[in-house]
TrEMBL record:
It is found in: Cell outer membrane. Its main location: membrane. PROSITE patterns: OMPA_1, OMPA_2, PROKAR_LIPOPROTEIN. This is Probable outer membrane protein F. It comes from Desulfotalea psychrophila (strain LSv54 / DSM 12343). Residues 103-215 form the OmpA-like domain. InterPro entries: Bact_OuterMem_StrucFunc (IPR050330), Gly-zipper (IPR039567), OMP_bac (IPR006664), OmpA-like (IPR006665), OMPA-like_CS (IPR006690), OmpA-like_sf (IPR036737). Keywords: Cell outer membrane, Membrane, Signal.
Length: 216
């Protein structure tokens, strides 16, 4: 590795480390800004080095990138904050749903029996009501990507459970589309019994709708 690229690598590591350390104890929006600063600075530094070929250009690029990245990170954090609040409000009356947030990733988890009868991938009336609540929020915030994840318990045949989880995920995806959510935003995936969250079979039977910001 050449000396200038070694120097650039050290700068990138410092910038990214500082941005991540600075996120500790901050709000989700502040964390988004900090991460955006770090990533923007890293990208800007690479561009600066490629164009100018010296340390001055690298640092200038890092500064510009940090500014742009910080603005973008702040906007994404605020957007996800608003969506989180609306999603929590939408499912507040439901005893079958919970919402959690990990940085800018929202996950709405629904009890499997709310959506489906045993060994079925036909959505029950109560499941349609839950899908409608979520779809209303998703349509309000179109700049997000959606993953519908189906999970089963470990009872029965593993291959059967995998297939059942995939069919259930596709059923929920199709239901969201029927309520107006753009199908290009949605990815349906079945995990079968591979990702348990509890020793309780009832808790492991679940549907998760995972929402991430579209940063394209």
């Amino acid at each position: 590795m050449s000396k200038k690229w070694l120097q650039l690598s050290r700068i990138l590591i410092i910038l990214l480390t500082l941005s991540l350390v600075g996120c500790a104890g901050q709000t989700n929006q502040q964390q988004g800004t900090g991460i955006g600063v770090g990533v923007g600075a890293g990208v800007g530094a690479i561009i600066g080095q490629a164009i100018g070929g010296d340390t001055g250009a690298t640092l200038l690029g890092a500064g510009i990138g940090a500014t742009v990245g910080g603005i973008a990170g702040n906007q994404i954090g605020r957007y996800m904050d608003q969506q989180e609040q609306d999603l929590r409000n939408a499912v507040a009356a439901s005893n079958a749903a919970s919402v959690r947030r990990d940085q800018d990733v929202l996950t709405a988890t629904f009890k499997g029996e709310t959506f489906f009868d045993t060994n079925s991938f036909t959505i029950k009336p109560g499941g349609w009501a839950e899908v409608n609540r979520v779809a209303t929020v998703l349509n309000k915030y179109p700049n997000t990507n959606i993953k519908v994840a189906g999970h089963t318990d470990s009872l029965g045949n593993e291959a059967y459970n995998q297939q059942l989880s995939e069919r259930r995920a596709r059923a929920v995806k199709n239901a969201l589309i029927q309520y107006g959510v753009n199908g290009n935003r949605i990815r349906a995936i079945g995990y079968g019994e591979s990702l348990p969250i509890s020793s309780s079979n009832a808790q492991n039977r679940r549907v998760e709708i995972v929402i991430t910001p579209n940063q394209a």
